[in-house]
Amino acid sequence: MTIVKLAFGLICLAILASNIVTMSRWSEARGVYDDICYLRQAHLFQRFGADGLNTDAARDDDRYFEGKMKQIGFAEGADPARWPCHNPMPSGKVVLQYPPGTGFLLALFPQGHQVVPLYVAASLIVCGLALSGIAMARTLPSVLSAGLFGALAVYLMINPAKASYSVAPTMALCALAGLLTALWLTRDRRSLLLIALIGLLLGASVNFRLPNALLAAGYFVFFGISFAWPRKFATLVQGLGFAAGVLVGIAPTLIAQAINAGSPLATTYGSADVVAPGFDLAVLGHYLHDMQFVLIVLAIGSTAWLLPNGEVRTRQVALLVAGNLLVNLIFFLTHPIFTPYYVVPIAMLSLWTVSFAWLMQPDHARQAAPLRSASARLGVLQR
């Protein structure tokens, strides 16, 4: 089994090395509007510090953004009203629509060399967690599943993560949150500090993409049901700790919205992005022919498998993940806009959580799972 672990570890490292070589060739002027908008936020942070949260187009007096648009052949860069990924606010300001987190991370690296270090750092976190999962596995089936999933997770840091600069840090946070969620629910005593940290991570993910707020939805459903029956003060405290963590994590986005849109709860997005839900067969068709469909199937399948095969605490992990998947899939499959990465965060958060929960089960529980499955199949045959 040690040889198998070593083999999968080397596979993950080989994929990581290949990814880093590929990333090193990326251009920061590939002609994608989102890219230069995230880089503008980074430029504002580097120029103004914390005051870079103010993304008013009037602050482009050094013509940084105008120059970036000229690089990609955008002819109307001198007119803020025509700027991509910017929207007019009731105050008259034209502001960047995205939350500030991605730009903040890009600002940590020197201008002109920001994207590659961001992706490499996120990939290192994901690969490190993949290797830790392989190391934790104690049976051959668990080594195989942890190794295959780890290799997939590292590969996904290139595709589809390259589609948006916001995806790479989101993937890293989902991996960390998955590990901590499994640790929190499989312990004999649930740590208030741990669930608050999970809330902080999920709240912080909203600073990369606003729809990441839905990643916390299943946790609130879980706490609501847990507190409703039976009502325990400890459950209420844990839920409040989680909510406090989410609120602290999301604070930068709330502050940015207050500065740019006039209220913490006002959106900086335009009407094209704020649309009512509705089933669209074309959108569903896109998902069916996309890599995201494979991830959805894997997430649903692994969660469904864990429900009858895990011990009591592990089944609670499966229930939390199932609720989170349900809420997120209902939203995105009824959202009339498709991208190649919309459901990747919830799928990866689910898969990381289920994977670590299975690996953290006591040996006797994991060994009993195949016996329970065999007994169930025998019972069906006898009937």
From TrEMBL:
Q: Does the keyword Transmembrane apply?
A: yes
Q: Which domain of life is it from?
A: Bacteria
Membrane spanning residue stretches: 116-135, 142-158, 164-185, 192-208, 214-230, 237-259, 291-308, 317-335, 341-360
**Keywords associated with the record:** Membrane, Transmembrane, Transmembrane helix
Q: Does the keyword Membrane apply?
A: yes
**What protein am I looking at?**
Glycosyltransferase RgtA/B/C/D-like domain-containing protein
Q: What species is given as this protein's source?
A: Bradyrhizobium sp. LLZ17
